Amino acid sequence: MSDGFVRAFGVDEIAPGEARVATVDGVEIAVVNIDGEFHALENRCPHADGPLGEGFVQGDAIVCPLHYWEFDIRTGEYLDDPEVCVRRYETRVEGSDVLVRVR
Ligand code: FES
User: Fold this and answer.
1) Measuring CA to CA, which residue among 12, 94, 103, 17 is closest to residue 62?
2) Which of 7, 19, 32, 80 has the fewest other C-beta atoms within 10 Å?
3) Pocket residues: Cβ below 6 A from ligand 1
4) Is the dihedral of CA 47, 25, 37, 3 positive or negative?
5) Predicted local confidence at residue 13, as pLDDT
């Protein structure tokens, strides 16, 4: 029986400090590498649906490319108002693959 984790990328496909976009089980996600630790967020900024995974990573934050809202990658919280959040998804590294569970 499947545990719901699906391959999104190879570990070598996202360098530390970078984000990339993937579609997993029909959900568009942003996968981010922070110093070898992988995180997955919904690829839709809560401000105006900007593509977060096309933004840039600054330390533990990802900056939306449209109007530069910054989100904590580890919690999904908007740095100026933690009440506003981006959805996060579970990730796991298995061998050379980054797996994400969106369901
Ligand atoms: S759409 Fe992301 S900051 Fe506006």
Assistant:
1) 17
2) 80
3) 45, 47-48, 50, 64, 66-67, 69
4) positive
5) 98
pLDDT of residue 93: 98
- Distance from the Cα of residue 55 to its chain's centroid: 11
Nearest in space to 20 (alpha carbons), one of 58, 71, 57, 45: 57
Helix or strand or coil: residue 31? strand
Expressed in angstroms and rounded, the spacing between residue 86 Cα and the centre of ligand 1 is: 12
| Contacts of residue 48, Cβ cutoff 8 Å, sequence gap at least 6 | 66, 67
Whether 1 shows a pLDDT value over 90: the answer reads no
Residues 71-97 have a mean pLDDT of 98
**Which ligand 1 atom is the nearest neighbour of the CA of 50?**
1
Every domain of the chain and the residues it spans = 6-101
Provide CATH code, domain 6-101: 2.102.10.10
Q: Note the pLDDT tens digit of each residue in 15-55.
A: 999 999 999 999 999 999 999 999 999 999 999 999 999 99
Query: Would you state the pLDDT for residue 103?
Result: 86
